[in-house]
Amino acid sequence: MGRVAELAGVSVRTLHHYDEIGLVRPSARTAAGYRAYSAGDVERLREVLAYRRLGFGLREVAELVGDPSTDAVAHLRRLRGLLLERRDRADAMVAAIDRELETRAKGLTVPPEEQLQMLGARLYDAIGGAYPATRRTEPRIAAQIWDALGDARTVLNVGAGTGSYEPADRDVTAVEPSAVMRGQRPAGSARCVAAAAESLPFEDHSFDVAMAVSTVHHWGDPIAGLCEMRRVARRVVVLTFDTDEPGWQDRFWLTRDYLPEFAAVLAEFPSLAGMADAIGARVEPVPIPWDCADGLFEAYWRRPGAYLQDHVRRAMSVWTRVGPQAEQRSVRSLSDDLDSGRWAERNSDLADLDAADLGLRLLIA
């Protein structure tokens, strides 16, 4: 027990307590009568300590590690998802601190309420809170998604967020790992399960179809998540992004002329062909209407002034990922070009377009 305590970085007293409450009980004894941990015991201890260090209470940990339907791999995937969410929160806090430092460097005063939003418990709520204001269901994109659902009656919405694009005429179950997003789902929406795409807590073929809308790029392991969707549903429908085409970042003027850092954000994102092959999917392009109601990153391709608005950018995860310096530089450059007329001159071909193909793709399997 002493050796295990040393390796795990906890006290022997802690291990004794876990033994007494039945959380981690050593399954063997040495010849001298001392407690000994098997490989399975150590694995369980690792899970317990990992959940504890993520802030879970002992009762919650006992329920998590005691779940007979969850194996070691599922626990690792769940832990990975929780850690990624924590990383995203930390990234958001760093970005908020950077913004405040730059504001103070200019000799400007930061109001108390903004300080609380930047550094307090409301930080992630404030960032996630931008979604309901601008991330709404776009009817024309929804029609294409819902048409792909076919005659499915039971639908699993993976990475469901606040519930956009969930069909009201189907039996929907939502999956969303973020408590912030779950808390913003409207009253009367589908029941929502706290889980990660890579480890869906459902039996094989539990649903007619599993759908995922503009969420795959947030997953720790997109291919694993897609394969899980394929496992639990007879069909799969996924709205994602194509990075296969050479020069794909030049399709959109914002990434081409103002935010080259966007390419690095998706540097490790799986290829569209790889994702399609993983689930045996065909691919459909999804045009973005010029007046798109869903404020996704490319939505304002014909309304460039929207990108100058902070509340619009806050509902786009890209800006947190590229950091405040890249964000402020690109916004400043865009503002200058809009004022000078350079943007309009450079993008005059967009004025008469009703919709644009900017890389959104629907995978249908």
Automatic annotation (TrEMBL):
Coiled-coil segments: none
Keyword list, A-Z: DNA-binding
Alphabetical list of Gene3D superfamilies matching this protein: 1.10.1660.10, Vaccinia Virus protein VP39
Pfam families: MerR, Methyltransf_11
Superkingdom to which the source organism belongs: Bacteria
Domain (HTH merR-type): residue spans on this chain: 1-67
UniProt-listed PROSITE patterns: HTH_MERR_1, HTH_MERR_2
Species of the source: Streptomyces incarnatus
SUPFAM superfamilies in UniProt: Putative DNA-binding domain (SSF46955), S-adenosyl-L-methionine-dependent methyltransferases (SSF53335)
InterPro entries noted in UniProt: DNA-bd_dom_put_sf, MerR-type_HTH_dom, MerR_fam, Methyltransf_11, SAM-dependent_MTases_sf
Name by which UniProt lists this protein: MerR family transcriptional regulator
